[in-house]
Structures are given as structure tokens and as C-alpha cells.
Design brief:
By secondary structure, this protein is of the alpha/beta class. It has three domains: about 5-270, 3-Layer(aba) Sandwich (Rossmann fold), CATH 3.40.50.300; about 285-315 and about 585-720, no CATH class; about 325-570, no CATH class. Strands 13, 14, 15, 16, 17, 18, 19 and 20 form an eight-stranded mixed sheet that branches.
């Protein structure tokens, strides 16, 4: 009949640091059967613990053959050895090796957790076994609340929970007093009598005396193997303690071949079970973990704040520019010489006679229809021309009379920054005071009709920024007579450029305000009026539109046209658009720099997580050894530690969001009181990014500690104090 356990010619050598070897076992040949209670006795260093590690599958580095339940341990893979320890072996340790931060119930059900058994079934099975060892009332306590004997009973219950074929007890009474030792030995004897093979490693003669068989080992060799003729099986009438229930056979549902409805051969530790274990582990060191999460949260919160500052500044710039412009208007200008100041605004007019403008309209309409699916078409019905002379009119001057009665004797002169023309629908939006500029009446020859004062008979007039009007005396300057001296460089037929100057007299008809332009000395002239002035001075051929304004029905179409114009790299928008783009670029650079700085703090946080988790592996080495002794795979250990990293990442992200919201509120209040604005803008996806980044750095930081934990040798781990 096949034996439960056979060792044939087993030898074990240890490699020493000096490349020498030490042989711990020599040609071990021994057999064990079910129902035996075997004591392996010997002095310290005799090799008995080494032998138990080989039998238990904790150490597979040996020569010879070990056959357990028909399986050759030497031929098993690491995964198969894990399964062997989980299903066929139950360990009972001298120092109990209970996990201190888990309850008694959780300690006992740990092996079932590794097998992904349902919570209900785990509790039911563990409660029955704890009841059988007299600890039913202690299931909610922690190991530190139990006596030594009670701890050993918990260890026995944990060893029995998966209904193993072999129980290995390493010095099961070494840390107990005499009375408690006898109670534990009686329990182990009852387990053997129930049909299991129980092997006890001991140097105690008392333990050996109650065994059915004693195997003595010395210097790595078996020197005797004797049966105890006085051994008697326990009967149902005998008890180890009248107050405790007799150990009964395990329920049929836990026996081999009787798998529960939730059991499958491939069932292992699930992610959810790993997370639950991780929560227990983290709560046991909650102060350390919360401080670590808060440290990471500072970096995460800083990252959110930097993104909020960047978007807030961008929003402020865009909103400011939009408040001075119309989002349904597209401004189109041809790019000029980029080497000149404000090169994009240099005189680079559209050629009305060459079909250039018509071609541009056709290209825009084709893009709107084919690429964007819009029915809107740009045409002469929804476009206006503009003539924006900036650097060309840098020598323009305005003469005015502070007294209000214009005469050249007391006139003062101001240098004008820019001359600007804007269409009526744009002008109406930005007029602070006065009437909108309009084209004067013309005579039969097409020239401006003038009255006796030399001013246009009706219509006309110039608008100025508020800065100039304030110099003229404020709102009282409306209607005052002014003279503007234009100096324009004209290229003649020979290709030579000469300055052409002319004067124009009219009244101040309005005050304009257009974003940054309001702080400059700018004169606004109606396009048709300026065209007439050039005609009257004999320079009609020089005058051509430098800007086209397109009135669109929606901001979406405006954005689509601007998108097309940008793709051509030949056109540019209004000065507001360009300044907004410039400021946004600067904001983006500053925001990116701040985010990079935040990422450096996140790198420090990542190193902190790595160090703390690495230290945690060292602190929990024995716990890892216990998990491996009950069948935890490398993947299971790694999953537990990566789950802890995941939880730290989630917790850090949540703390980071709360931190950023509180700090943003404080900064907003301070900035609003100091400068009147608080350029902080949140986006919902910032929080998603924060959580994602937090989880990412935590998971990456936890990879090495998790890998190190998974690779720990179970024998060495269990030896760690």
C-alpha cells in the first residue's frame, strides 16, 4: 500500500559565503503513513528543522526523492509547490507566527482568502474549527489579547482550515507551560487519530512519549526509528479538557474531493481579497501610511494648483480680450515682414483687382463645407474692409487746442501711436461716448463736402482712445476741432520710397476702448472716410484694404475660420488675437515650468513611497514567510503589496484634491483683496489627472518593494525575528 510520505536518499547542502558547502542531511530514507503521530527528535543543529522544511515544500533545493500523496516534490514547479503547501500541508510553528494586526478569525481564514473562497463560507468553516479548539468566543480578538496556549490553538486551526493531509508542528510546545503543552499535544493526537499524518519536530522527551513513532536524527542522519508500543488512539469518550469539545472530523465539504460550490482548481487570491488584506495591513500602521499619503498629497495638490493657475491666467487673458472684441467676427490680415516690429501689421494690402480676395473666400468656404460641415459662406454680404496702419503711421501727429477754439497759434501736437480703422458693428461695441464715425457726404466729383470752417459738411470725425481724450480735457473734448498730420511712405514707379504727408481737419466724434489699445495714443477713422482722404490727396492708388472683417453667425464658425487661416501660415488675426496668443504662449510656458517643478516634488514623493514600502517589506518579512507557508504564490505576495501601493495612490490623490481646493480658496481670497482678480480656474479632469498621477507614481514606486517581497525565501523569512 502506498505510503502518505516517502523520503528516498534525500541529501541537503547549504552554500556558505566562502563558496564552501555544509551538508545538513545525509541519505535520509524514511516513510510515513496516514494516522501517525510522529516525533522527530534531535539536538539543535541535527537537521530536523531542515528535514521539515523539505517535507513542507518550503525548500526544494535538495537531492534525492520526496514523494507526498503520489507527487514527487522534486519535479514540482514553484507554482505547484505553492499549491502543495496550500492544500496538503498545515504548519504549526513554535512561535505561533500569527499576524498581529489581523483578528483571530482573519488569521484562521487567511489560507481560504488565498484560495478566493467566499466570505460566508470562510467564516462558517473558521468558526467551526475555532469551536473545535475551544476558541469560538475569541474570534474577534487580536493575537496580542490571547495567552500562549490560545495562540497555539489558533495556529492549529489555521493549519487545519484547508483540510491538509499532513500537519507539520515545529516545537509546538516549546513556548508553553506544562499544562498548556499537554492540551496542545492532545489536540495534535486527536488530529492524527482522525486520519492525518502529524509530524512534530521536538527535542522534548515528553512530546516524544505520546507519539506513535519516534524518529531520532543526529548530525543529519537518522539514527533510530522506533514505534511507541504504549501509544493508544483517542476514543470519543476521552477528553483533554472537560470544558472543551472533542475534536471531530472536519465537515465533508472541506474534505479532499468534496469541493465547495465556490472552489475551482485555478482559484487564487483575487484582487478584491488582496485589497481587503492591504486595508488591514495599512490600518495596522495607519499613522505612517496617512503621513506618507499626506506627503504625496502635497505634491499632487501643487500639481493641481499649477494647472489651475495656468488655465486661470489663460482664461483671464481670453475673457479680457473677448470683452473688447466680438467672438463672431474674424479679422484677417496678411503677414508682413517678421523682422520688423509688429511685422505682421506692416503695410501688406490685399489686391482687390487680382482676384486674391475672391480666392481666399473660396478656400475658406471649401474648408468650412468639406472639413467642418458648415453651410455658412464668406461673401461680400458679410465682410468689411479695414485699413490698419501701424508702423507706417508712426510719424502721425494730432494738433489740438486745449482751450477748445482751434487755431494754429495755440495748438499743441501729440505723436500718435497707431491709426486704426474698424467696421461699424465693431465700433458700436467699443464706443464709450459720442457718435459712431461715419463717411461724410461727397459732391458730384466724389470729394468730401465741406462747410465754411473747412470741416466735412456732415458725418466724418475722428475717434480716439480715452488716453488721448483725457489729454484734450476729458469728455468735454467731444466736438472739438483737431488736425491730424499723416506721413505715409510711398514707393514711386522707380522703386524709391518717399514720405507723403497730408493734413485732415475734423472734430472728435467719439471715445473708443479696445483692450490694450485703450492705453495707447490711437486714432480711429472710418474706412470709407480714410479712403476719401487718400483720394483727395491724389493717392487713391496707394489705398487698399489691409484687413478683412468677416461677420459669422456663431463663435464655432469663427474658430473654424481662424483654424483654417492658421493652417495656411499666411494670415494673421487682430492685434487682440495676436496679443492673446502671445500671452497664452507665455502663460503656457510659465504654467509648464510650474508643473515641471511640481513634478520634481512628485519625484521626491515617489522616492518616499519606495523607501517606506521597502522598509515595510523588512518589517513584515516573517508575515511574508507565513503567507508563503500556507501556499501564497509570488503573484499573491506581489498583489498584496501592489494593492497597498494602489490604496496609497488613491488616498494621496483624494488628499491632494482636498488640499488644492482649500489652498486655492485661500489664494483666491488673498489675490482678490490685493489685486482684484484671482486667476485660478479648475477643470473637472484636473482631478482625474491628479488621481491618475498619484496612482501611477505610487504603483511605480511599489514595484520594487513588491517584487522584493515576492522573492523572499520562505525559510529565511520565517527565521526572521
Amino acid at each position: 500500500m502506498e505510503k502518505e510520505l516517502q523520503l528516498i536518499g534525500v541529501n541537503k547542502k547549504y552554500k556558505l559565503e566562502n563558496k564552501q558547502t555544509f551538508q545538513a542531511l545525509y541519505d535520509i530514507n524514511v516513510e510515513f503513513d496516514k494516522g501517525e503521530l510522529v516525533s522527530i527528535v534531535g539536538e539543535s543543529g541535527s537537521g530536523k528543522s531542515t528535514l521539515m522544511n523539505l517535507i513542507g515544500g518550503l525548500d526544494s533545493d535538495f537531492t534525492g526523492t520526496i514523494i507526498s500523496g503520489g507527487e514527487n516534490l522534486k519535479k514540482l514547479t514553484d507554482k505547484q509547490l505553492d499549491k502543495y503547501r496550500k492544500n496538503k500541508i498545515g504548519f504549526v510553528f513554535q512561535s505561533f507566527n500569527l499576524i498581529s494586526h489581523l483578528s483571530i478569525l482573519d488569521n484562521v481564514t487567511l489560507a481560504l482568502t488565498l484560495s478566493n473562497v467566499s466570505e460566508k463560507e470562510k467564516v462558517e468553516k473558521a468558526t467551526k474549527i475555532l469551536k473545535r479548539v475551544g476558541l469560538e468566543s475569541q474570534i474577534k480578538k487580536k493575537p496580542t489579547q490571547l495567552s500562549g496556549g490560545q495562540k497555539q490553538r489558533v495556529a492549529i486551526a489555521r493549519a487545519l482550515i484547508n483540510d491538509p493531509e499532513i500537519i507539520i508542528a515545529d516545537e509546538p510546545t516549546g513556548a508553553l507551560d506544562s499544562d498548556t503543552s499537554m492540551q496542545i499535544l492532545e489536540i495534535l493526537k486527536e488530529i492524527a487519530d482522525s486520519g492525518k499524518l502529524v509530524i512534530m519536530v521536538t527535542h522534548s522527551e515528553k512530546v516524544a512519549s505520546i507519539s506513535s513513532r519516534v524518529v531520532e536524527i543526529a548530525d543529519g542522519r537518522i539514527i533510530s526509528d522506533t514505534l511507541n508500543e504504549k501509544y493508544q488512539k483517542t476514543t470519543q469518550e476521552s477528553t483533554s479538557n472537560p470544558q472543551e469539545e472533542i475534536l471531530q472530523p472536519l465537515p465533508a465539504s472541506t474534505r479532499k474531493g468534496k469541493k465547495s460550490k465556490n472552489s475551482k482548481d485555478k482559484q487564487n487570491l483575487s484582487l478584491w481579497s488582496a485589497i481587503r488584506l492591504s486595508i488591514h495591513n495599512m490600518w495596522a500602521s495607519k499613522t505612517k501610511n496617512f503621513l506618507m499619503a499626506f506627503g504625496v498629497a502635497i505634491g499632487i495638490g501643487s500639481l493641481i494648483l499649477m494647472m489651475c493657475f495656468s488655465s486661470g491666467i489663460t482664461d483671464f487673458i481670453n475673457d479680457t480680450m473677448k470683452s473688447y472684441s466680438d467672438p463672431t467676427i474674424v479679422t484677417i490680415s496678411k503677414k508682413g515682414d517678421s523682422d520688423k516690429p509688429f511685422g505682421s501689421f506692416d503695410y501688406n494690402p490685399f489686391d482687390e483687382d487680382s482676384g486674391e480676395i475672391t480666392t481666399l473666400y473660396d478656400d475658406i468656404n471649401k474648408y468650412l463645407k468639406d472639413e467642418k460641415g458648415y453651410d455658412f459662406e464668406v461673401s461680400s454680404d458679410n465682410t468689411y474692409y479695414g485699413f490698419n496702419l501701424l508702423s507706417i503711421f508712426s510719424d502721425a501727429k494730432v494738433s489740438y487746442s486745449p482751450s477748445g477754439d482751434f487755431n494754429y497759434s495755440d495748438a499743441e501736437t501729440l505723436n500718435i501711436s497707431y491709426v486704426y480703422t474698424i467696421p461699424p458693428y465693431y465700433t458700436e461695441k467699443n464706443v464709450i461716448e459720442g457718435e459712431m464715425s461715419s463717411t461724410p457726404s461727397t459732391d458730384a466729383n466724389g470729394y468730401i463736402k465741406k462747410n465754411s470752417d473747412g470741416l466735412p459738411e456732415e458725418g466724418g470725425g475722428f475717434m480716439f482712445t480715452k488716453t488721448i481724450v483725457d489729454l484734450f480735457g476729458g469728455e468735454e473734448a467731444l466736438g472739438k476741432k483737431v488736425e491730424i498730420s499723416f506721413t505715409v511712405p510711398i514707393t514711386n514707379a522707380e522703386g524709391k520710397t518717399e514720405n507723403f504727408s497730408f493734413d485732415a481737419e475734423d472734430t472728435i466724434c467719439g471715445i473708443m476702448d479696445t483692450s490694450v489699445m485703450s492705453q495707447l495714443l490711437v486714432v480711429y477713422v472710418d474706412y470709407d472716410y480714410l479712403k476719401l482722404l487718400f483720394k483727395e490727396k491724389g493717392q487713391a492708388d496707394f489705398f487698399a484694404p489691409t484687413t478683412i472683417y468677416v461677420q459669422t453667425p456663431s463663435e464655432e464658425i469663427t474658430d473654424a475660420i481662424n483654424e483654417y487661416l492658421a493652417s495656411t501660415n499666411a494670415y494673421t488675426g487682430s492685434i487682440e488675437d495676436q496679443l492673446a496668443g502671445l500671452f497664452n504662449s507665455l502663460s503656457s510656458v510659465i504654467g509648464t515650468s510650474l508643473i515641471v517643478i511640481s513634478c520634481i516634488s512628485l519625484l521626491v514623493s515617489a522616492m518616499m513611497i519606495l523607501v517606506v514600502l521597502y522598509m515595510s517589506v523588512s518589517e513584515r518579512t516573517k508575515e511574508i514567510g507565513v503567507l508563503k507557508s500556507i501556499g501564497a504564490r509570488r503573484k499573491d505576495i506581489k498583489r498584496i503589496f501592489t494593492s497597498e501601493s494602489l490604496l496609497i495612490g488613491i488616498l494621496s490623490g483624494i488628499f491632494g484634491i482636498i488640499f488644492s481646493l482649500i489652498l486655492a480658496g485661500i489664494i483666491s481670497i488673498v489675490l482678490s483683496s490685493l489685486i482684484g482678480i484671482a486667476p485660478i480656474s479648475f477643470r473637472w479632469w484636473y482631478f482625474a489627472v491628479a488621481i491618475g498621477v498619484s496612482i501611477l507614481i505610487s504603483m511605480l514606486s511599489g514595484l520594487y518593494p513588491a517584487s522584493k517581497a515576492a522573492k523572499l525565501d520562505p525559510v529565511e523569512s520565517l527565521r526572521r525575528e
